[in-house]
Amino acid sequence: MLTPTRLRPGLSRLFPVLLFLIGLLGLPACEAPQGSASGVPDALVEGPGPQRAANGMVASVNAIASRVGAEVLRGGGNAVDAAIATGFALAVVHPSAGNIGGGGFMVIRFPDGTSTAWDFREKAPLAAHPEMFLDENGEYSREVHHNSHVAVGVPGTVAGFAMAHEKYGSFDWTGLVDPAIGLAGDGFELSEALAGSIGRSLRSMERYPASVAKFSKDGEAYEQGEVWKQPDLARSLERIRDQGRDGFYLGETARLIVEEMERGGGLITEEDLARYQPQERTPIRGAFKGYEVISMPPPSSGGTALVQMLNVLEGFDLAAMGHNSTAYVHHLTEAMRRAFRDRALHLADADFSDPPLERLTSKAYAEALRAEIQPEKASVSSPTDITLPVESLETTHYSVVDSQGMAVSVTYTLEAGYGSKIVVPGGGFLLNNEMGDFNAGPGLTNARGLIGTEPNLARPEQRMLSSMTPTILAKDGKLVAVVGSPGGRTIINSVLQVVLNLTVFDMEIHEAVAAKRFHHQWLPDALRIEEDGMTPEALSALEAMGHTARMAGSQGSTPSVFLDPETGELIGAPDPRDRDGGAAGY
Ligand code: DON
User: Fold this and answer.
1) What's the whole-model pTM score?
2) Please, what CATH class does the domain formed by 284-392+466-580 belong to?
3) Domain extents in the chain
C-alpha cells in the first residue's frame, strides 16, 4: 500500500500555491532538469495537447485546474490529493460543472492493484417523497423536477473530498483548497470559451439576482480577457479550508444554503446538510480481453452498463469489423440498446433497492444478450410502457495518476449546465439540480418521455440514479489508463468507446480520446453519431439495417491519462472537444 510522505503542514500548504503563482506569472516554475535526482521536483509540462511526464499527470477540461493538480503532485501530494485540488479549482474556473454545490464519484486504484470508490452523489432531502415533482394540481411539473429549488439535492462534493482526503490523502488539506481560493479571490482571465459560456447562461439565471451578480457586471456579460473575481466563493472556500467539511455543512455556509432554500421553497434543511455522508463503495469490476475494468457501482448505472456492454462485445470480432465501420456501429448499438434497457428497468441506489448487479455483469447473461443480436438487422426497442426522460449534458471528468502509480478517476456534476442556476447569496456557489435524475413520479411512465418505475423514485436520503462512469483500466496487474466523461446518458457510451479504442484498436491515448463517438440509449430508438463520424454511405447502410441514425453535434469529453508500458511514462490526453482543456504533469 501507499506510504506517501506527509509534508510538513507549513511547507506543504505553501508549496503548491507558490508553484502555482509562479506558473500564473508565466515564469519557468522550476529550473531543475527532467529526472532530477537533486530532490528538486522536475519541471512542469503542460498544454492543450497530449503531454508526457515521468512522475505524475492530470488531464481535465480546464488547463488551469490541471495545473493546480499537477503542482500538488509535484509538491509531494498523491493522486487523491491532486484530484481534490483539481476539483476545487474546477469549481472556480469551470463553473458550469465544477462545483462545491453538486456531487459525484471518485474511483481509486492503488499501486498494489486494489481499488475503491467514493460516492459523494447528492441525496434527496428528508422531506422528499415520490410525488414531490407534482404541482399543486397534482400534475407532473417538469419545471419543479428540473428547474426549481425543489430540484436541488443535498450537495456531496465537499464531504466526499474531505473524507477521501482523510482516508487516502497525504497532503495538508489547506494546500488543496488554497489554489482555488487564490483563483476565486484574485480572479483569472476569462477565455473566449468560458466568457461565451457564461454569457449564454445569463438568461437562464434572470430569476436569481445573486446568480446574475456573480456571472455578469450588473447584467452586462463578461468578455474574453477580463479578469473574473468571485469573492463570495473565495470566502466559502476559505471556510472549507479552515474547517473542512464542517465549513460547508455547518455554520455560515449551511445557514446561507438553508436561507436560500426557504426563500425559494426548497426542501433542504440544516439537518439534511449536517446528516450528509459520502459512502465508500466496492467498485464494479469486469474483465475484457485480458483487461481489468474498474468502475462506479450504484448509485451510478455507469460501471454496470459499461461492463455489461463489454461482456456482450467480447464475443464479436470488433477488430475485423474495423473502427466505426457500419458493422461495428451496428454491433455496439445493439449492445447499448440492451444495456440501457436494463439500466432503466433495474438500476437505482442500492441502499434503497436490490439491483441485480451480478446477473447484469455476468458473462452468462452477456452471452444470452449476444445471441439475440442479428449481424445485419437492427432490433426494435420495445418501450412496453417505458420511455426515458431527457437528460442534460453538463458534468465534468478528470483523470489523475501519481508517481507511485496511484490512479484516480473523478466525474462530478451540477447535473445541468450551471445546475439549478441558483447561486447561494453570500456563498457565491451554484446549487445542483440533481433531483431531476430521480424518476418523475409513481405510475407516470408514458410514451412522451416520463418514467415512473419504482426503484429510482425520490425518497428521503436516497441518491438519484446517475450515468457517470469514472473508470480505470489495468492489465496484468499494471495500470493502463484512467478515463471518464460528462454527457448524461452518453457518458457510458463515450467511456465504452474510449476503452474499445485502447483495447481492441490499440490506438494511442490521444487518438482514442479524439475518435468520433456515437450513442444509443434504448429509448428513444435513435442512433446519434458525432458530426463527420462516418461517411454518408455508411450512414445509409445503417439505415438500411433498420437503424434510425443521424449525424450531429459532439459527444462527451474524455480527458484521460495513459501509462505507456514501454517507457513507464504517463501520457495525459485532454479531449480536443474541450476548448480550454489541458494536461499537466511533471
Ligand atoms: O449523474 C448523471 O448521470 C447526470 N446528472 C449527469 C449529467 C451530465 O453528465 C451532464 N453532462 N455533461
Assistant:
1) 0.93
2) alpha beta
3) 9-123+156-280+414-433, 284-392+466-580
